[in-house]
Amino acid sequence: MDPSHNDLEAIRRILADLTTRVYRIEQKLRIEPETAVPSHATAPAQPPPPKPSAVDAPPGQPVSAAPPPPYVLSPVQRAPKVEPQADLEARIGSHWLNRIGIAALLIGISYFLKFAFDNNWIGPAGRVAIGLLAGIAVIVWSERFRTKGYKAFSYSLKAVGIGALYLSLWAAFQVYSLIPSSVAFVMMLAVTAATAVMAWTQDAPLLAAFALTGGFTTPLLLSTGQNREVALFSYVALLDVGALLLVVLKPWRRLLVMSFVGTLLLYVGWYSSFYSRSQISPTLGFATLFFAIFAIAPLVTLQPEGEAPLFASIPAVLAFVNAVVYFLQAYAMFEEIDKRDMAWFALALAAVYIFLSRQVQSRKLTPAAAEKLHFLHLAVALGFITVAIPIRLDAHWITIGWFVEAGVLLWVADCIESDLLNGFALAALVLGVVRLLLLDNFYTTQLIFNLRMATYAVAVAVLGAVAWYASRRADDAARMVAAVAVVALNVLALIALSHEIADYYSRQMSALQPLRGRRIPAYVADWRTIGIERDFSYSALWMAYGAMLMVIGFVRRSAFVRWQALLLIAATIFKVFVYDVSQLDRGYRIVSFIVLGALLLAISFVYQRDWLKLSARKQGRSS
């Protein structure tokens, strides 16, 4: 037998086997082929006979490729191409016209009922009964459309029916006083529960949204203007727990946003109208209960498959907003008593979020979402620690607290290798530096060994730690952070030493005040002498600090440090030649020039001796 014929037969058998397998897969997935398979053939034992191929055709006759079996085509291949115009037309016809038609129908019925009510055709009890029966009838009628596949139209009708039920019960209580508030509340609660059950059984998140909307509207519909805090917030907590149970069992995380917004609106509305200082205990208790519900929610919710990025961030956003809102609620209540206690409250919240950050490893979250939520909880905890410092401490102690926090965060970030904590450390450090330079006012009674110098020393130490930790990394961003930290360190050190010089001479000037009214010439002469000494001290400080930086740059072979020294020495040269020549006395002028000249010659000698082998490096780069 021809070997090629055997190969073709083997290929044919493989294709037949693959065809059978694809057919069975499509049967299990309930994918309808273009050409219907006969009803009596549930699963063919053998594939359809293959079409004649080139091997079977007589010589000399044209051969056409055999078409593949119709049920081999995938659903994507069989799907007809939908034109955008047709899709828009279908949306207009099936959705927009549906909503407009329902609105028109409701308006027409409303006008008719109003006409009937105005003419007293129907009494109050009859009006309420019509509304209730119409609402129930519309809901029942909508089921007929749902079973036939018109889900969007069915849900629209259900919205009309549910709204009719709520409004009828509202009218029975508020308008006609036919039933007491307790009966109206129970009936509205029954409507909410029934809607939630329908949402569960029909797997319809839209109906769940209807249930939540009706549930949070119920207190507004039944409001009598009286303060019923316990009843109101107990009911709201019940709604929140129900929403939490739904999102635990169903991937309907958008319900959490609705529940949180509804709770917040009802809380703010009640607080602005009824809250007093005597109610702090129950109010804070309910606020804590709401906080706990929405703090747990991001950890236990189901994540839908293929969720859009905007909705995938719901747990993280909810965790952050919930923390901020709860803290502001507590702050508003404690501000009237002692807001300093809020520092301990903030630290307690920080501990809670550190605990939550360790509980994020939930099987219901993807690894990426769990990691994101973990770091967000940690960030919120650090934020509360940062907020607690200015609440509890005063003046410069706030600055020191932020510097200490930055140092601790740097150490922890290095231990766990967290860039997020590094970012928070830098943020706390920036807050401390800005406050130190712009807000803090120190009153010192002695030189060097004072609280201002200690605060600057803490800042310099933390900046040194930043530079050291960043220098251990090899990336460009870390090198940039290290460079900025070194520059900021030197600037703060110079500012701190300059403050000490200014304080020293300002005390001497203050000691001359008794002479101001009695011996004016002596006062002016002494004042000028002290000013000259102060200006010379500034020049001496800059030259000494520049020389120190140059030595460090040579010892550590750091061009970056040497460039800082050169810039500072250049500023000193400019001051000596431009300012000191015209302002200082002859003696100070001589000393300034001699010291500056000696310093420049020494630095020049070091460069000329080429102790750092800079010329060799230059030749190596040029070659």
Q: End-to-end distance, in Å?
A: 75 Å
Q: What is the CA-atom radius of gyration, in angstroms?
A: 40 Å
Q: Strand tally, please? A: 0
**Low-confidence stretches at least 5 residues in length (pLDDT < 50)?**
35-47, 50-68, 70-83
Tally of individual domains: 5
Structural account:
- By secondary structure, the protein is mainly alpha-helical.
- It folds into five domains: 3-59 and 66-78, no CATH class; 96-224; 232-392; 402-511, no CATH class; 531-623.
- The chain has 22 helices and no strands.
- The chain has helices at residues 3-29, 75-78, 84-118, 124-147, 151-175, 181-201, 205-221, 229-249, 254-274, 280-300, 309-312, 314-334, 341-357, 367-392, 396-416, 419-438, 451-471, 476-511, 520-555, 559-583, 586-609, 614-622.
- The radius of gyration is 40 Å and the shape is elongated.
- It starts with a helix and ends with a helix.
Furnish the topology, listing elements before pairings.
Elements: H1 3-29, H2 75-78, H3 84-118, H4 124-147, H5 151-175, H6 181-201, H7 205-221, H8 229-249, H9 254-274, H10 280-300, H11 309-312, H12 314-334, H13 341-357, H14 367-392, H15 396-416, H16 419-438, H17 451-471, H18 476-511, H19 520-555, H20 559-583, H21 586-609, H22 614-622
Helix pairs in contact: 3-5, 4-5, 5-6, 5-7, 6-7, 7-8, 7-9, 8-9, 8-10, 10-12, 12-13, 12-14, 13-14, 14-15, 14-16, 15-16, 15-17, 16-17, 17-18, 18-19, 19-20, 19-21, 20-21
Keywords:
mainly alpha, 5 domains
Task: State the gist of this model.
The chain is mainly α.
